[in-house]
Write a structure and sequence with these properties.
This protein is of the alpha+beta class. The protein is built from nine helices and twelve strands. It has a four-stranded antiparallel β-sheet. A four-stranded antiparallel β-sheet has the order 2-7-4-5. The protein has a four-stranded antiparallel β-sheet with strand order 9-10-12-11.
């Protein structure tokens, strides 16, 4: 796929015509980012907007006690860096590749010029910012004050909503959903501000309750959506 085609799949630029996308192509350098790479942090003041062409990126902050707290997980077509771009210093936001990813970016001055010329893009940015801030508040409240079980249930539910793929058996959709994010127990623990041993113990409980299924592929989870919702209600 050429660069113009995948730029058109970034949700922010979907309404642009070919000529406009060609202009965007010249100002959006692309990079291959390996899993685990720290893409941006409060300490590298690059003032860039990042656009995910392929892969998944974890957005997180660090609590006063030094624990990582996940804010969001984004996949292809989404952007990040917009909060730091327009409100520098207001949030201590980090972004790390959750898997090998292809990411392009645009600097602040160039992006400001684009939104002045195209108010429709500015409106999209406002909408994205509003949704992102709401999700940040929900996730941070849960991760800061919930117990390990409620945190894990919340995280599995959020991942299933974003990346869930219903499992089909005999032509019919089942209650089981495969979460299309490959994460280890340690990575789940980091996302929740917990430790691997505790997360593994809670996962084993959820498996025995048939909320979660073991899979043959390490790092992939299958969850039962109705039992997950019920478990969340009981954990509140």
């Amino acid at each position: 796929m050429d660069k113009i085609k995948y730029l058109s799949r970034i949700n922010l630029f979907q309404d642009m015509d070919t000529k406009e996308l060609q202009q965007m192509e010249s100002i959006t350098p692309i990079s291959i980012t390996k899993k685990g790479t720290l893409i941006t942090s409060p300490h590298n003041n690059q003032e860039r907007l990042y656009l995910i062409k392929q892969g998944k990126v974890r957005i997180y902050t660090i609590s006063s006690s030094g624990k990582e707290l996940t804010i969001d997980v984004l996949d292809s077509g989404h952007l990040f860096g917009e909060i730091s771009l327009f409100a520098p210093g207001s949030h201590l936001i980090y972004a790390k590749a959750l898997e090998d990813s292809v990411i392009c970016s645009i600097n602040k001055a160039q992006f400001e010029q684009i939104i002045m010329e195209k108010p429709a893009i500015a409106l999209k940015v406002i909408k994205i910012l509003s949704c992102r801030l709401k999700e940040m508040e929900e996730m941070m409240e849960q991760m800061a004050y919930g117990n390990v079980r409620s945190k894990l249930l919340f995280l599995l539910n959020r991942l299933s909503e974003k990346f869930g793929d219903p499992i089909i058996e005999y032509g019919n959709e089942t209650e089981w959903i495969r979460i299309g994010v490959n994460v280890t127990h340690q990575e789940l623990a980091s996302m929740m501000g917990s430790i691997r041993e505790t997360v593994t113990e809670v996962l084993n409980d959820l498996i025995s309750e048939e909320v979660v299924k073991r899979t043959s592929t390490r790092g992939l989870f299958i969850i039962h959506r109705t039992r997950l919702k019920r478990a969340i209600e009981y954990s509140v």
